[in-house]
Design brief:
Blueprint (H helix, E strand, L loop, with lengths): L5 E5 L11 E6 L4 H14 L3 E4 L5 E3 L4 E7 L6 E4 L2 E5 L4 H10 L15 H7 L2 E2 L2 E2 L4 E7 L5 E5 L18 E8 L6 H18 L6 E4 L9 H7 L6 E2 L2 E3 L6 E4 L5 H19 L8 E3 L10
Parallel strand pairs: 2-5, 3-5, 4-17
Antiparallel strand pairs: 1-2, 6-7, 7-12, 8-9, 10-11, 10-12, 13-16, 14-15, 15-16
Length: about 300
Amino acid sequence: MALRIQKHIPLAPYVSFKVGGPARYFCQPASPEEFAEALRFAHNKGLKYFVLGKGTNLVFSDMGYPGLVIETENFNRVQWDGAKVTTECGVLLMDVVTQSVERGMVGMQNLAGIPGTMGGGVYINAGAFDQELKDLVVSVLSLKPDGTLVRRSNSECGFVYRRSVFCGAGEIVLESSMELQPGGDPAALRTEMEATLKRRSDKQPLEYPNAGSMFKRPPGNYAGALIQAAGLKGFRMGNAAISDKHANFTINLGCATAQEIWDLTSEVILRVRDHSGITLEREPIFAGEFLPWPRPL
């Protein structure tokens, strides 16, 4: 069965911020061969492509995405082999955390509550509370733009803070394997996981659409502290705002546009730089076209 390519699919329902226009082309491959077919389609039409997981670290432009969006929900298989777990790119990271806890496997409980998929998590080396996926990953299977499959060991993945070798290379993370520690007590691990989830809910504005931490942590400092010190907690542009609960969370108050989120975060970057001399860097991907902010960043 040939890969189905759709046109003009609204993207806002696919991203946690609930903003963004339509994709010019959209598909949901179910095999590496269909993924390769999608890449050939984009290449033959001279289009850029974008791989979409759960859209939790992402803002699509109000004008949409002018190329091909490849959505990964059909890549949802998980395979356990003792303490080793292999997951396809569309598997929710939180589902793997829950399974590891139920099996008494130690290592993922502090990652509880991180939204998004394993593919996206590995791609950006997601982490929280001084733990990152790079601490667990043993190998990654990726698809190059030319359709070639490549398997890399952990040391070949180039993991650093919120980046990997896959960023900017046009490669698609298809599958990853992690090695955990067996022998944990499921009840104790569940308590740790629930404590992590509570810590998140107490400090993060989960009641509003958002993309998680808006800015990367600058060396030796915290983005939220810098934003708060610049007097920007609660700062608002249109229906996009800096959360009163956590200054490093930008939230959609209900009907925000992607451009409002871009404008708000652009002004935050400038005001924090004016106040502290530190230039913040956005963590989510802003895909598509955005109007530039009047003051240069």
